[in-house]
Amino acid sequence: ISKSVPIIYSHDIYTTENDEYDEVVLLLHGFQLNGYFMFKRFEKRFGPKVKVIAPNAPFIVPLKKDQGWEARYGWYFYDSDTRNFYINYDPAANWLSELLKDLNPNNSPVTIIGYSQGGYIAPKVAELVPEVKKVVGINCIFRSERFKTKKNTTYSQVHGNEDTLVAFTEARSEFLRLKELGVEGEFIEVCEDHFLNGNLIKATMDLV
Questions:
Q1: Which of 49, 62, 64, 190 is buried most, with the most CB atoms less than 10 Å from its CB?
Q2: Phi and psi (nearest 5°) for 84?
Q3: 143-166 pLDDT, tens digit each
Q4: Is the pTM of this model over 0.70?
């Protein structure tokens, strides 16, 4: 049998400590990374009136090190060989929706910046959170069949044209499909690989 039974445990969330803010930026890291990976790269790029939130994804993905293991995290689990989701977008997207209700009690406008796996899931989170006004995905693919778009939200992407992990041409093709459906947003091409470096971050900040 299969049953849905909630498991409650503590999650680490990196966030700025500003109680007074006008908008929220939600940072979603890539597979087998953590919230601090995103927080340290973006936090200082926003002013004091922006609340930055960078949670660890809810599913632990242990990373083998030379000595022992290190806790890393994932938003979902997809087997590219069998084309099967062991865990789809829904659990993490719903969890993030509840998290924002708690951490954004003012219902301030939200921008989501998702990198790699975090970018894949970002539009699904936007579907569930009314306050989301902008979605920016970095080196990811917006799978239009996995989320519903909103008229008051822009969907933009930044992608390295030398990305060896996520196909640049497929990402651009999927984005153009969204544009044909009337979605607002931009697709920015950067001469970079997959790793999140300064050039990709700069192009992202130009969109927010």
A1: 190
A2: -130, 135
A3: 999 999 998 999 999 999 999 999
A4: yes
